[in-house]
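Reposting from the mailing list since nobody answered there.

I have sequence plus structure tokens for a pair of proteins and want to know whether others read the tokens the same way I do. The first protein:
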Amino acid sequence: MKKMTGLLLLCCLVFAGCGEPAITQEEYDAVVAERDGLQSERDELLSERDELESEIENLNKAIELSEKVTEYQARIEEQHEHAKFILYVTGKIAGMDTEELLLQMDDVYQTAVDSIGGVKTLYENVNAMEGIDPDVNDAIQTVDNMWDAWCDLYEKILVMEKYVMG
């Protein structure tokens, strides 16, 4: 019977301690509100991060465009002078008038230089592009197309040079 009374007393003590909540409803509500606020702040930060990543991608494309424009302009200028020389020498050696070829080459040259220059002027200042969503991919494609057109012509001139020079 002593064991039974002791066991009954122990159970009463355990159940009496479990009946009262450890935290109040106000404390619970405060913790839930804080959690919700932190989740909202987290979502805002993730959204801001995505916007910044998009801006970084656009700026990287603008930098790529700027590098291509600079490289292509320098190479076209250098190759243009060489091409004029080759056409002149070819005309003198072959005894033919190369004026028409020079005009066609100059036309391709001028188109390439003007197109690339126009793109450069439009996208020259990377800082000015901040907050703008430019379609840099089209500009890059335009520059690449002009470069390809010039390269096709220049390759033909190099073939002519090899033929003339033996």
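The second protein, same order (residues first, tokens after):
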Amino acid sequence: MKVTMKIALVALISWASVAAGSAQAQELWNGVALGMTPREVLRVLPGAQATSDPSNKASFGELLVAMPGVDVFDHSGRAEFYFERNRLTTVRLFVEPQDLTQQSNQMVIEKIQAELGRPPECVLMMMLCSWRLPTRTVAFSAGGLEPPSALGVEYTGPSRARAR
């Protein structure tokens, strides 16, 4: 009986350490991990602010935390944090329109590629690229080029399938 309890305890400890490792591996952006609560995100990112606009709901969650003045690949921008059932599912980064240039799209793509490699899914004519990694999915999208109008990078959990 004692041997069975010890085996069960060892199995439980092993499972807990694997689960903790998996949670750490699912960092989405800048120390913020998939599944965090809004309070945890606010604690990790002191410049972030809680938001409570009920109209800020999207198909991938509710905007509950935002952070202005964020460096988005050497551009001035903002971060938005989306939650489902009070758990973080998506981080979206946006470059402020006044900071966009003709070269912004290419610069951001190159910086993401330096970290993640060439995107397996990319339609450069439409400025849509995505990297589906074991621990997260990273998507890049940009608006018009003449003049540059929008640029965003989105971090979600692994293999997040949804309509864009």
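Reply #1 (J.P.):
I read it the same way you do. Residues 65 and 158 are 21 Å apart (CA to CA).
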